[in-house]
Structure formats: structure tokens, C-alpha cells
């Protein structure tokens, strides 16, 4: 677990001691062994620094949660990792391939905050479309679709047009579409927003099942009771990673009893 006391602290201190060639070799090996490996990611829009020199090292099979207020850089970071935004500087690797990836694109799933499904198709037709985009065997799709419809609690609305669904239901369909091809790494941007508490519990049980199967999950959330279920939590503020570690470790280092208080403590330390 690491708390960053200043914006200039480099979290890759172990690699800095090596010569230039050594750094390159070590980072390449780490990138191959990790699900996600990023160094000094930075995204700048004109005069706005959206993401400011952050490092990420996420092991395969890990459940990683990003927390922070709106505008802290969480969504921008994920969009850079999935290749939707060009990096201003820095390097990132997903499943050993340098971002933006092409060879491993079918091995990742992505659920954005904004709706990315088709309102003129039914729920099941959306799932089928996304499965066909990833060349999923039709026979395998049937069972996969049935399982996901149960997870998102929309089995009884599978033949409904998405345009007829509530905003929360559409969000759940988007989650299913991101998972229909059984990806190895899943990026979920606010997957449980607007979802009722009982269904949220079901979602997290499913996330835990995916983790047990060796899947890597990277998600953003505003719910601290969800973040505490993650293996590792990255706390972001003003584009910077102000602290990172296990929920228990973050609370112990900050001397607080909950993640919200821990976040406020670390934010005060870095002066943002």
C-alpha cells in the first residue's frame, strides 16, 4: 500500500535504480506478467491536466477499484487503457500488449458510463449483436445470454426494446454486453450506479465469482461500501493517484475507520 506525499514522488522507485536498459527490460517483463501495467500516464486537454503522471500495476485475477470525486480522472484513465483516448505521455500495457491494443481486443470488456447499446434492439438482440462482434459460437451464446440475463435481473424483459426500459435497466444491459464474450480483463465505469441495493449485492457476488475464475476487474465507484470489497483501491483526486493499497491498509495508514475518512486524510496530506 502506497500513499503519495507529493505529486513528484515516483512509485517505480525500484526500477529507477537500474540503468536505462534495465528499466526498459524490467518494465517489459512486468507488463507481460500483469494484467495492466502503466507508467506515468498523463492526459492533457489544452490547459487542463485530466490525468497527471499516474502509475498502475494490476495483477491478473485482481479486483481493482478506483474512487474519487467527479473530475478526478477515473474515467479518463480507463478510456486511455481501453484505447479510446490517446495518451499525452507515458506508457500502458494491457495483457502484455502496448496500448492502444489490437491483438488482445477480444480479451477485454468495457462498460462506459454513457449508454453504449442500441435502443431500437431488444435486450437479447443487443447481447447477440455484441457476441457476434466477438465471433462467439451461437451455441455458447445461448447459455451465456441466459446466465447474464439472470445476473442483471432482466430475464423477463429479454424481448423488450431497450427504448422501453428505464435508465437503470439500460445500464444493466450495458453491463451484460460488456461481459457477454467472457473477457479476461473487464473495465467497468460506475457499473452499479442507479441500481437498487439488493441487485448491487448480486452484482458484487458475480464480480467475486469472476475473480475466482481468474478474471481481472477494474471498476470505478462512488460507493465506499463497494470499494471496501476490492483487493486494491486507488484513490484519485485532481488527476493524481493520492493513495493506493488494500482497503484495510489504507485505513490503517490513515488512522481512520472507513475509506471515506481515509480518502479525506490522504487528500489533505497531498494538499489538493
Detailed description of the structure:
The chain is of the alpha/beta class. It has a single domain (12-270), classed as P-loop containing nucleotide triphosphate hydrolases (Rossmann fold, 3-Layer(aba) Sandwich). 38% of the residues lie in helices and 24% in strands. The strands form two sheets. It has a seven-stranded mixed β-sheet, sandwiched between helices. A four-stranded antiparallel β-sheet has the order 3-2-5-6. Helix 7 (197-212) links the parallel strand 8 and strand 9 (216-220). Helix 4 packs parallel to helix 6. The longest helix has 16 residues, at 197-212. The model is unreliable at 1-27 (pLDDT under 50).
Helix and strand topology:
Elements: E1 2-3, H1 13-16, H2 20-33, E2 34-45, E3 48-59, E4 63-67, H3 74-81, E5 89-94, E6 97-98, E7 108-111, H4 123-133, H5 138-151, H6 167-179, E8 185-189, H7 197-212, E9 216-220, H8 224-227, E10 232-237, E11 240-245, H9 247-254, H10 259-270
Helix pairs in contact: 4-5, 4-6, 9-10
Short description:
With 272 residues, this protein is of the alpha/beta class. It is built from 10 helices and 11 strands.
Percentage of residues in helical conformation: 25-40%
Poorly predicted spans: 1-27
Coarse structural class = alpha/beta
Number of helices: 10
Radius of gyration: 19 Å
Main sheet overview: 7 strands, mixed
Task: For the largest sheet, list the strands in their spatial order.
Answer: 1-11-10-4-9-8-7
By CATH, the topology is Rossmann fold
For the termini, the CA-CA separation is 20 Å
- CATH class, named Alpha Beta
CATH architecture: 3-Layer(aba) Sandwich
